[in-house]
User: Fold this.
Amino acid sequence: MSDPSPDRPVRVGVTAWLRTLETHLGPTAMYTIQTPYVSALRAEGAVPLLLIPVTDAEAALDAVDGVLLSGGNDLEPSTYGAERHPRSQAADHERDAFEASLAAAAIAAGMPILAICRGMQSLNVALGGSLHQNVEEHVDRAGNHDRVDVPGDPVHTVVLEPGSRLAAIFGTDVVSVNSMHHQAIADPAPGLRVVGRHPESGLVEAVDLQTHPWCVAVQWHPEVMAGGAPGRLGLFRAFVDACRTFADSRPELGN
Ligand code: MN
Assistant:
């Protein structure tokens, strides 16, 4: 086994979104990822890899040094014991099951996790929490958090828990963020600490896992915000740094 090299690549697995897209073959089922995740990780020197659902999530984790649970469609409500609301989107059961296994395995391994939007909801459900299926209807004073009309724009503030990892990364206890979600955490899972809230409604906008070396989840989309935005600046750098530390702590593969 060789000593860790500062040039060793840091590989970040990003969970894939199965979509049917129009191609020259006609409508084609494809495993996809939105390009801003890739751009944000490449900018920090990481090697982004697509994580495709497999039965053995631990085998997938062998290929990466960190996991980014990405955005996408709603989770299946029965996975958190709820009846389906008419606004809940069609579920991808394969993705739901894979992300639950992946999150559990990454937590057990102490591997860094950054969870974004659906990813935060997926992490919460994996650990036994529940979701609001339609925020505007179910959370007083929340208003419309589904501002896909202005994807990169700050549309509401988030008050961060003083002293939390996120507050340290951003260097402030209040950030303005974009918002492209109609669902959100209802009951946080055991172990998840709420570290960010929409101040008008108390809606959960960020959580972390205190017993884990680096597990941060946000309901907004930092990868779509401008590079210097207060709700993005430093987050991907901190995540990739944690992945590098994790990579340096594990045995070299193939030896
Ligand atoms: Mn929001």
About this structure: The first helix runs from residue 35 to 43. The chain has one domain: 10-254. The chain has a mean pLDDT of 95.
